[in-house]
Write a structure and sequence with these properties.
The chain has six helices and 19 strands. It is an alpha/beta fold and about 325 residues long. The protein has two domains: about 180 residues, 3-Layer(bba) Sandwich (FAD/NAD(P)-binding domain), CATH 3.50.50.60; about 120 residues, FAD/NAD(P)-binding domain, CATH 3.50.50. The strands form five sheets. Strands 1, 2, 5, 6, 7, 8 and 19 form a seven-stranded mixed beta sheet that branches. The chain has a five-stranded parallel beta sheet with strand order 10-17-11-12-13. The protein has a three-stranded antiparallel beta sheet with strand order 14-15-16, with no helix packed on it. The longest helix has 22 residues. The chain starts with a strand and ends with a helix. The structure holds NADP nicotinamide-adenine-dinucleotide phosphate. NADP nicotinamide-adenine-dinucleotide phosphate binds next to helix 4.
Length: about 325
């Protein structure tokens, strides 16, 4: 174990982690960023980002995270590829265990994101990203103007995505495996009664059609009650069957809610039950899940870490 005690260790290189890095590096805290299996986070899987302020022409998701990374590097951020397997926050300094190694830190910002739950059907992986399968209507909905699309899922996310997509798509199929939505009544009623949304009940997706051509041309589905298979003629498929927050190695000791998301202290988005340990981005946000909101939380976490270090010796 190295005896070096880092001022700030940031875990994750999505919008939240990189924004925390920019702020803490600029505050001369010499942050160390640990980069996990998907450098740049979920944004790198989106082609065009049209709603990040400051880019009136839109910006490529990968490029946006590259820009943030460059900005963080310019102010002295250090990056290391490493997977945190467990933590010991019971004493100071805080300990981050990476297999055989341990990193010591005065403050820790956890920005590990969440992974969209996927169906795993054939064609989904191959056509994910700019090829027709996506997990974010807010990000990609506008690309499907006057086209037919399908939304998979029956929760609030699926209902919300389907309703949002009615602004662009000519028709939205809401494909759910049961005959009743899990979504709140108000959202469910809105979706079911919308003239552009067709409910496809008791139905599971079977295959994304279009792999040889390189873009989605349909969705093969199966009615679980009758066994009948059919193809929905859609160009876009929005998977909204929940997310899996990447909080495993940290909880406990950090508190999480019933969905596994970090549970910040009341009145804060980033303070946790452990002093000097902060959370930011999609690992603690199942409501907004936007690049700009993740960036905002990263900024808050960095400012909190800076204040903690000023009070406790940085
Ligand atoms: P969720 O509530 O867990 O719903 C996931 C949906 O996907 C369920 O309908 C589930 O079906 C279906 N599903 C799961 N695995 C599947 C599979 N392998 N194949 C097919 N379908 C599958 O997730 P969520 O909609 O993302 O919502 C997460 C949380 O955020 C909830 O607490 C929700 O209320 C909240 N949220 C709130 C808002 C809002 O208030 N505006 C918006 C979005 C999310 P079953 O129903 O059969 O289990």
């Amino acid at each position: 174990m190295s005896n070096t005690v880092e001022n700030v260790v940031i875990i994750g290189t999505g919008c939240a982690g990189l924004t925390a890095a920019i702020y803490s590096a600029r505050a001369s805290l010499n942050p160390l960023v640990l980069e996990g299996p998907l450098p740049g986070g979920q944004l790198t899987t989106t082609s065009e980002v049209e709603n990040f302020p400051g880019f009136p022409e839109g910006v490529d998701g990968f490029q946006l995270t590259q820009n943030m990374r460059e900005q963080a590097t310019k102010f002295g951020t250090r990056f290391e590829q490493a997977l945190v397997t467990s933590v010991d926050f019971s004493s100071m300094p805080r300990k981050l265990v990476l297999g055989e190694r341990t990193i010591l830190a005065k403050t820790v910002i956890i920005a590990t994101g969440a992974s969209p739950r996927m169906t795993g059907i054939p064609g989904e992986k191959e056509l994910y990203g700019g090829k027709g399968v996506t997990t974010c209507a807010t990000c990609d909905g506008a690309f499907y103007r006057k086209m037919e699309v399908a939304v998979l899922g029956g929760g609030d996310s699926a209902a919300e995505e389907a309703l949002f997509l009615t602004r662009f798509a000519s028709k939205v199929y809401l494909v759910h495996r049961r005959d009743e939505l899990r979504a709140s009544k108000i959202m469910a009623d809105r979706a079911i009664n919308h003239e552009k949304i067709e409910m496809v009940w008791d139905t599971i997706p079977v295959e994304v059609v279009g792999v040889p051509e390189g873009s989605v041309s349909g969705l093969k589905v199966k009615n679980v009650k009758t066994g009948a298979e059919s193809v929905l003629p859609v160009k876009g498929i929005f998977v909204a069957i929940g997310h899996i927050p990447n909080t495993g190695p940290f909880a406990p000791p950090l508190e999480v809610d019933e969905g596994g998301y970090f549970k910040p202290q009341p009145g804060s988005q980033v303070l946790t039950n452990i002093p000097g340990v902060y959370v930011a981005g999609d690992c603690s946000d199942h409501i907004y899940r936007q690049a700009i909101t993740a960036a905002g939380m990263g900024c808050q976490a960095a400012i909190e870490a800076e204040r903690w270090l000023a009070e406790h010796g940085g």
